[in-house]
Write a structure and sequence with these properties.
By secondary structure, the protein is an all-alpha fold. It is built from 6 helices and no strands. The longest helix is centred in the last third of the chain and has 37 residues.
Length: about 190
């Protein structure tokens, strides 16, 4: 009587129909949502986690390397992505650039400076400085040409992000060592 509690039967839960566009479930309590998100800061098996991270990084590097060799736009680094960078790469790869021969001429000059003949050393120095001036002039002309072509095709938005500098630096690399690999033959300028 006095210490006894009467149990009341619980009313049945109202049955709600699924409504389209609604989430159709109750909102979880904050405590439950936070508990579901919790993960340990340090994994329980550190060796396995480190091995998994190394494997994943290796796979990413391999995919990126493969993209550099094939020109697959999806896995290229951000520096090389986009239609403007593709256009610049193709334009630079289609032309003969003085900068790509600079390294070869520099190696010849190093060999010629070892010559005991003063005339050969003097000629090699003149050859090297001539190549420097010619390469810089070619790079300047290429930058002006790229600016004009990019504006024609993509407008002023295409010039943002150092695209012209990207093309000039690519022109100073030996064609076989360029990454991403050249996808066009010489003389096949992009439209």
């Amino acid at each position: 009587m006095f210490g006894r509690q009467k149990t009341k039967p619980e009313p049945p839960a109202p049955v709600e129909e699924d409504r389209p566009g609604a989430k159709n479930r109750p909102t979880p309590r904050r405590r439950d949502a936070e508990a579901a998100r919790k993960r340990p800061l340090v994994p329980t098996d550190r060796k396995a986690a480190a091995k998994e991270a190394r494997d994943q990084a290796r796979m990413e590097r391999m995919r990126g390397r493969e993209a550099m060799l094939t020109g697959d736009e999806r896995y290229l680094p951000p520096r090389d992505k986009g239609p403007v960078k593709r256009f610049v790469r193709d334009y630079v790869d289609a032309r003969w650039n003085a900068g790509e021969f600079f390294l070869i001429v520099a190696m010849v000059v190093v060999v010629l400076t070892l010559s005991p003949n003063d005339t050969m050393r003097w000629a090699s120095t003149i050859l090297l400085w001539g190549m420097v001036v010619f390469s810089l002039l070619d790079g300047f002309l290429l930058s002006r040409l790229l600016k004009r072509r990019i504006r024609e095709k993509f407008g002023d938005e295409g010039l943002a992000g150092g695209t012209v500098r990207y093309g000039v630096m690519r022109a100073f690399q030996i064609r076989r060592t360029r990454l991403p690999k050249p996808m066009v033959k010489r003389g096949a300028y992009p439209r």
